[in-house]
């Protein structure tokens, strides 16, 4: 094993550099929506509230913001790419430890680094790339401690494990497997791990690792009304950091009636990450590792099973990201399978090299779909919403989807400090006075569509509203009517989220125009796609209740439609719910509702449109005091 140290270190560095180049090439260029936008809002901030949590993640983001650019959103995205690349390098080292093969370790790292979910989370501002760094790093430290069980190595492991909680509290899920491994691997028996010396070392390291949370705790004394004492402060701190108010309704709260559907979702998810053969290789690797080193098998399988059970029962709209640690364990288990196959076939790495090529093919296949380097949809959406507004002329009252609201927070902080806006719910009780006072100084009250409806419900006809013509959107029918006959197009319709509704009349008109009157309705099974040329018989009409992937050719352009979500559970997809790829160009991110793209002769998009979903244009209404 000592002879492998230098080659595997070089391999880890090479893989990390290659993965970073891949992530940097496909990096989100700036603002994103959802949780991502809330992280980007916090970039560079000197104050982090307990509710914001993730102090280590924000500390690293602050460093990147200071080092790289004046665009905090890009800096935070870049930090994720670096963290994801480091994680890939660490995977090489861990896989080498458990398989004894450098090439098998490279295959495992390429397989996981190029997997759909991890790649998508490593090119935008999210905590999961750093979380995988800590999961992999602590496993590596444990294995190094097993090779040479000294107190110094044990202390380093304790400290890094504790530090990982500063990024994500789900590090707790590693504790059962880590504890069991320490107990069964202790050179002087399990009792040597529960001595006062070891327990004292663990507690000291835990205290040091928890220090980043002092940043969050300090915020409580910066409020206008600080806590009356340390116990009250700690109670508030714990409630907010752990988000006890909503986690209690989501952890282990998945109804048993949907467990079969959850299983089908997980099987789809596994295929999305590793194809058909990856899970089979991992199963073989499990047998090999159980035979070669039961203790190490206990470690890997323990981490896998606990994280799988948690993600399987976590009732959230983005549960797919919580499967990442279990996916990591499967990728690691592929390595001993490849090493064993090489040994059995006496091929000196031939099987593992073939696996590297196979994993690299997966990267090639996913590249056009996961390339978000040109994705400026969030900025365009918010620019359209705030166009022509400033603090001299208008106050914007909003009632938006929370993902858009987070994006608006970032825009107002970084790009539009001249924008005066507030959530209508925060001012609804005194909205008449607010509107009249602004009217007296020449500032109009501008409302988003839902805010206007809410104001009318609350105050009836007290205020007159009119549609702001600057935000009027043509809809699918309007876009279709503007296309030159023969223009290549792809239309995708996914079941909308409960918060949004489809304009059935506009969809019917658009379908009729696009297909020359040959199609006016589309299946409501969940997923649907229409591909063709404007005004002609469709080249293909596809629909189903399960995600699908189809490839066809439209007038010389190769078009691929990839449905990449599981609608019964996925309400949040930071990478979108699907993709349209034309001639290996990323042409459209498919969202819930209607997603449309018109293509030129090279496969590049010339027109896109959304309706009934997150990226549908936001209508504005103007209201003035009587």
Model description:
The structure is a single chain. It contains 25 helices and 14 strands. It has 3 domains: 349 residues, no CATH class; 96 residues; 137 residues, no CATH class. The protein is of the alpha+beta class. 53% of the residues lie in helices and 13% in strands. The model has no long low-confidence stretch (mean pLDDT 90). The longest helix is centred in the first third of the chain and has 28 residues. It has a 5-stranded mixed β-sheet.
In short:
This protein has 626 residues and is α+β, with helices and mostly antiparallel strands.
Spell out the blueprint of helices and strands.
Layout: H1 5-25, H2 35-42, H3 55-68, H4 72-99, H5 102-113, H6 116-121, H7 128-147, H8 151-164, H9 175-185, H10 196-209, H11 214-219, H12 230-241, H13 244-247, H14 259-274, H15 277-292, H16 294-313, H17 324-345, H18 350-370, H19 377-386, E1 394-398, H20 402-415, E2 421-423, H21 424-427, H22 431-440, E3 444-448, H23 449-459, E4 464-467, H24 475-482, E5 488-494, H25 504-514, E6 527-533, E7 540-544, E8 549-554, E9 557-563, E10 578-582, E11 585-590, E12 593-599, E13 605-611, E14 620-624
Parallel strand pairs: 1-2, 1-3
Antiparallel strand pairs: 3-14, 4-14, 5-6, 5-12, 6-7, 8-9, 9-10, 10-11, 12-13
Helix pairs in contact: 1-4, 1-5, 2-20, 3-4, 4-5, 4-7, 4-17, 5-17, 5-18, 7-8, 8-10, 9-16, 15-16, 15-17, 16-17, 17-18, 24-25
């Amino acid at each position: 094993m000592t002879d492998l140290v230098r080659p595997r270190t070089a391999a880890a560095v090479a893989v990390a550099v290659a993965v970073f180049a891949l992530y940097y090439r496909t990096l989100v260029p700036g603002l994103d929506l959802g949780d991502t936008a809330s992280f980007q809002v916090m970039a560079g901030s000197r104050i982090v509230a307990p509710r914001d949590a993730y102090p280590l993640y924000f500390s690293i983001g602050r460093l990147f913001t200071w080092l790289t650019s004046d665009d905090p959103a890009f800096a935070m995205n870049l930090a994720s790419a670096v963290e994801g690349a480091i994680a890939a390098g660490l995977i090489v080292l861990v896989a080498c430890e458990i398989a004894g093969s450098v090439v098998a370790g490279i295959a495992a790292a390429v397989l996981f680094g190029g997997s759909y979910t991890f790649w998508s989370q490593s090119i935008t501002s999210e905590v999961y790339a750093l979380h995988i760094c800590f999961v992999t790093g602590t496993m590596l430290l444990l294995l190094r401690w097993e090779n040479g069980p000294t107190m110094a190595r044990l202390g380093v492991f304790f400290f890094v494990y504790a530090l990982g909680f500063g990024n994500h509290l789900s590090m707790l899920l590693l504790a059962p497997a880590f504890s069991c491994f320490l107990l069964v691997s202790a050179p002087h028996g399990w009792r040597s791990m529960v001595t006062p010396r070891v327990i004292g070392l663990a507690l000291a390291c835990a205290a040091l690792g928890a220090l980043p949370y002092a940043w969050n705790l300090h915020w409580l004394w910066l409020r206008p009304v600080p806590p009356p004492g340390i116990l009250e402060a700690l109670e508030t701190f714990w409630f907010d950091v752990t988000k006890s108010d909503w986690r209690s309704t989501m952890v282990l709260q998945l109804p048993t009636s949907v467990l079969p559907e959850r299983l089908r979702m997980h099987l789809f998810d596994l295929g999305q990450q590793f194809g058909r053969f990856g899970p089979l290789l991992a199963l073989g690797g499990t047998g090999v590792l159980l035979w070669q080193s039961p203790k190490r098998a206990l470690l890997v399988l323990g981490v896998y099973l606990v994280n799988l059970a948690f993600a399987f029962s976590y009732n959230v709209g983005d549960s797919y990201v919580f499967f990442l640690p279990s996916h990591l364990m499967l990728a690691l288990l592929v390595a001993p399978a490849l090493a064993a196959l090489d040994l059995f076939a006496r091929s000196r790495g031939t099987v593992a090299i073939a696996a590297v090529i196979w994993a690299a093919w997966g990267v090639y296949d996913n590249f056009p779909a996961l390339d978000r380097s040109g994705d400026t949809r969030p900025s365009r959406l918010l620019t359209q919403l705030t166009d022509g507004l400033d603090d001299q002329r208008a106050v914007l009252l909003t009632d938006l989807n929370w993902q858009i609201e987070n994006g608006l927070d970032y825009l107002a902080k970084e790009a539009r400090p001249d924008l005066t806006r507030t959530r209508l719910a925060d001012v609804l009780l005194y909205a008449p006075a607010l509107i009249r006072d602004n009217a007296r100084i020449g500032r109009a009250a501008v409302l988003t569509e839902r805010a206007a409806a809410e104001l009318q419900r609350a105050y009836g006809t007290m205020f007159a509203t009119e549609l702001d013509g600057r935000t009027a959107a043509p809809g699918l029918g309007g876009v279709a009517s503007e296309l030159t006959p023969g223009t290549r197009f792809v239309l995708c319709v996914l079941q909308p989220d409960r918060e949004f509704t489809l304009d059935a009349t506009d969809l019917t008109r658009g379908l009729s125009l696009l297909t020359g009157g040959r199609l006016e309705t589309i299946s409501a099974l969940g997923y649907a796609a229409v591909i063709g040329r404007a005004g002609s018989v469709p080249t293909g009409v596809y629909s189903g209740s399960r995600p699908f992937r189809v490839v066809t050719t439209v007038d010389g352009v190769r078009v691929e439609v990839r449905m990449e979500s599981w609608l019964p559970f996925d309400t949040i997809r930071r990478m979108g719910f699907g993709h349209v790829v034309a001639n290996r160009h990323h042409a459209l991110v498919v969202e819930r509702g209607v997603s449309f793209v018109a293509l030129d002769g090279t496969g590049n998009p010339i027109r896109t449109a959304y309706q009934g979903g997150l990226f549908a244009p936001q209508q504005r209404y103007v209201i003035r005091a009587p």
